[in-house]
């Protein structure tokens, strides 16, 4: 092959390779679009007046997290749950609302449930006395505005697990002493003192003559 023709073919190949490489570099270094979007948490339960910040997580087609991307927020019911441009949700009246986040053309939702605020937690029996090694079942009644009983999840704690443990309201006496048992529902808390006594203080049954 004549040298002039070979040189021309080599130059064309180099030009084509250069264009191909430049194209590949632009694909890598160019801005990626959102390929997936999720919102954390995807569901939350709040009382009236409480707030929570939702976090959008955006991935590109390679699974790489994209940060600093603009996200547009909206709510299905602003009276139940309002949303700011920063993803902060404020609970309004009781009910349920869907929060939608949009980044590029991807969208994701989160469900916000607003509960009736708890005003008071009543525990029965009040100030029980139990024998070491035995147990007693406590019951918590949650009251809302106006003293109306409302259905709420209650969490239990004890001030001294060495004296008395508690699980789902069941108190177990471990050693002699006193412990304060608390039941919490939302922002309301009720408490009672449990006294654990030794077996020797238990009245013995008197047999009939």
Description:
This protein has 209 residues and is mainly beta. The chain folds into two domains: 36-115, Immunoglobulin-like; 120-201, Sandwich (Immunoglobulin-like). The chain is 13% helix and 45% strand. The protein contains one helix and 18 strands. It has a four-stranded mixed sheet with strand order 2-9-8-5, with no helix packed on it. The protein has a four-stranded mixed sheet with strand order 11-18-17-14, with no helix packed on it. Strands 3-7-6 form a three-stranded antiparallel sheet, with no helix packed on it. β8 and β9 (106-115) form a beta hairpin. The longest helix has 27 residues, at 3-29. The chain starts with a helix and ends in a 12-residue tail after the last strand. The model is unreliable at 3-30 (pLDDT under 50).
């Amino acid at each position: 092959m004549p040298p002039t023709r070979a040189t021309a073919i080599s130059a064309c190949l180099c030009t084509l390779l250069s264009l191909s490489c430049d194209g590949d570099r632009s694909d890598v270094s160019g801005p990626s679009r959102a390929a997936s979007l999720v919102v954390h948490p995807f569901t939350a339960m709040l009382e009236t007046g409480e707030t929570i910040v939702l976090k959008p997580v955006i991935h590109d087609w390679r699974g790489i997290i994209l940060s600093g991307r603009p996200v547009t927020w909206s709510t299905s019911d602003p009276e139940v749950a309002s949303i700011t441009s920063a993803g902060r949700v404020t609970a309004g009246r009781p009910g349920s609302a869907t929060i939608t986040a949009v980044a590029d053309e991807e969208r994701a939702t989160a469900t916000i449930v607003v509960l009736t605020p708890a005003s008071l937690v009543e525990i029965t029996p009040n100030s029980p006395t139990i024998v070491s090694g035995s147990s007693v079942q406590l019951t918590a009644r949650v009251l809302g505005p106006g003293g109306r009983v409302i259905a709420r999840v209650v969490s239990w704690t004890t001030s001294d697990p060495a004296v008395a443990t508690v699980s789902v309201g069941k108190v177990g006496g471990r050693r002699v002493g006193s412990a304060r048992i608390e039941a919490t529902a939302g922002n309301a808390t009720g408490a009672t003192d449990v006294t654990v006594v030794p077996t020797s203080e238990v009245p013995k049954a008197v047999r009939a003559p």
